[in-house]
Specification:
Elements (H helix, E strand, L loop, with lengths): L7 H20 L2 E2 L1 H8 L3 H9 L5 E4 L2 E5 H20 L1
Antiparallel strand pairs: 1-3, 2-3
Helix pairs in contact: 2-3
Length: 89
C-alpha cells in the first residue's frame, strides 16, 4: 500500500527538525500546557494537574495557565535533586 520507506536524507531532516522544535520549546520564556506535556512526555491532563501544584512555576494570563520556562527548568533540577536524595537514603 503506502508503506514506502522514507529516504534516509528525508528521515534525518525530519528527525533533526523534531529535535530543533523540542529544543526551541525547552528554551521558551513561557510554555503552554501542550508544550509542557510534550517536553515532559506526559498527557495534557497530567500537565494541567502538575500546573496546579503548589511550588510549580505556573501562572494565569487571561484565561490561560502558562509556565515560566526558566523557572520550570530550575523546578525540574530541584525535583531531580530531591529524587536522587530520596534514592540515596
Amino acid at each position: 500500500m503506502f508503506n514506502k520507506a522514507l529516504p534516509n536524507a528525508l528521515y534525518q531532516e525530519q528527525t533533526t527538525d523534531n529535535k530543533k522544535n523540542q529544543q526551541d520549546n525547552e528554551q521558551k520564556l513561557v510554555l503552554n500546557v501542550k508544550q509542557l506535556a510534550k517536553i515532559m512526555g506526559i498527557c495534557e491532563k497530567s500537565a494541567y494537574n502538575l500546573m496546579r501544584k503548589p511550588g510549580f512555576p505556573s501562572f494565569k494570563a487571561g484565561g490561560r495557565v502558562l509556565v515560566n520556562g526558566p523557572e520550570f527548568r530550575k523546578w525540574m533540577d530541584s525535583q531531580t535533586k530531591s529524587y536522587e536524595a530520596e534514592k540515596a537514603a
